[in-house]
Every structure is written in C-alpha cells, then in structure tokens.
Amino acid sequence: MAAVGPNFKTPDAPKVTGYLAEPAPPQAGTDAQHYVAGMDIHGQWWTLFHSTALNELVQQSLKSNPTLQAAQATLREANENVAAQRGTLSPRSRRAMTSVAIATRPVRCSRH
What we know:
Layout: H1 52-64, H2 68-89, H3 94-104
C-alpha cells in the first residue's frame, strides 16, 4: 500500500469521448451487435431480445410491483426470506435442544 503526503491531489480523469481509442472494425458477414454513441435506448429494451420468457417475467414483475416503492418492498421481503432460510441451515446447539427437551418433559409422580 502506497502512502501519500499531505499535498496529494487526486489526478483529473482522462479526457475520453468513448470506450475505444478508435472505432471497432466492422465484422463482415455477421449480424454482430454494435454500439451507437448517443443513441437512445428503447424504453422496453428487453423486448429487443425477442424472448417470450423474458417478456412474461418482466410483465409479471411490472404487474406485481407497479411502483418503485412496491418493488423495493418486494426485494426487502425476498432478502428477509433468504436470511430466514439460511438460519435453518445453521448448526444447532445440542445443549439448547436438551434443555428444551428436559423443560418440556412431563413430570410423573409415583405414590408409594
């Protein structure tokens, strides 16, 4: 780990206008994907994959979570369910189980 002095100044970000120094060469004879700088992305971008399964999944998600707050609540609920399920996989203490078994064992009285 390098140490920096009190006069350290974060360098400016490089001045770039794109991902590559030069445009990527075209690939002849293929339907390769391409990037068009400044092009607007379709609002329903997932439909560009022409996947019925993906379209149905997105539609189900939008129907079940009509607002951002509803989607966030669903994610919180899913995370809590995962955490609860992980708890069932943790090792349990035999001592704790034994004390519960002893505490709940019926007491028998015998008369002599």
